[in-house]
Amino acid sequence: MDFGIAGRKAIVGGASAGLGKACAMSLAREGVDVTIVARTLANIETAAEEIRAATGANVTPVAVDINTDEGRAEVLRACPAPDIVVNNSGGPPSGNFRDWDRAAWIAALNGNMLGAIFMIKDTVDGMIARKFGRIVNITSSAVKAPISILGLSNGARSGLTGFVAGVAREVAKHNVTVNNLLPGDFDTERHKSNTQALAKVQNRSYEEMRAIRIGQVAAGRFGDPAELGQYCAYLCSVQASFITGQNLLIDGGKYPGTF
């Protein structure tokens, strides 16, 4: 299927590895010019080289903290008129809510709620003017089924979810869609660190905890980041113009509910 987005321009956050990199790779395969962002210069340049080699696409790496005003400004200088924005930021630390002070909560809100909101604010009006826009926020399955040790993430990402529910309906008539992708267990470094944290809390080995987590997934495995990348690319397609304001769970059947 031709997604109809060749020649479009995209900004993808957290794209040096894991889910962000997979989203950038899938968009690049569709002929999108991608500006990829992460904090570490060496890592984002390596990712850019890999994406170029695999796809032949135009890839611009930017090494900044996209959740700061200065970082967003630099990204928007590199890609001033994006058609597609993929908001993706690493989650805050796991732990016990009794140990988190105000500074920890503010950092979580900035990284997993406010950063995405301000990126939407900075780009959505240009999308409206051009009559095309796709915004995808990579949040977490924890928005739907909270994970106790991820309280900072549960709270911050839920706040973003509430904001998106309103703004998506406001801009839909301009062919601008805003959706959230809720990844479950994907085989990434972040998932590995969370598994290690759970193992410590439950006094288990990492290998035992990993096996338990795989057993909780109906598909019997962890997800490949490339699978989420393809889902993201579809949401950015011309065919997905009637999908907006949705929280789309991709978790291999782990969530047991009907709704």
Word description of this protein:
- The chain has eight helices and seven strands.
- The chain is of the alpha/beta class.
- Strand 5, helix 5 (151-171) and strand 6 (176-183) form a beta-alpha-beta unit.
- It starts with 8 loop residues before the first strand and ends in a 9-residue tail after the last strand.
- The mean pLDDT is 95.
Chain-wise SSE layout:
Elements: E1 9-12, H1 18-29, E2 33-38, H2 41-55, E3 59-63, H3 69-78, E4 84-87, H4 102-130, E5 133-138, H5 151-171, E6 176-183, H6 189-201, H7 206-215, H8 225-235, E7 247-250
Parallel strand pairs: 1-2, 1-4, 2-3, 4-5, 5-6, 6-7
Helix pairs in contact: 1-2, 1-8, 4-5, 6-7
List keywords for this structure.
about 45% helix, about 260 residues, 7 strands, globular
Instruction: Please state the structural category.
Output: alpha/beta
Largest sheet: 7 strands, parallel
Strand order of the largest sheet: 3-2-1-4-5-6-7
Average pLDDT: 95
Helix content: 40-55%
Tell me, what's the shape?
A: globular
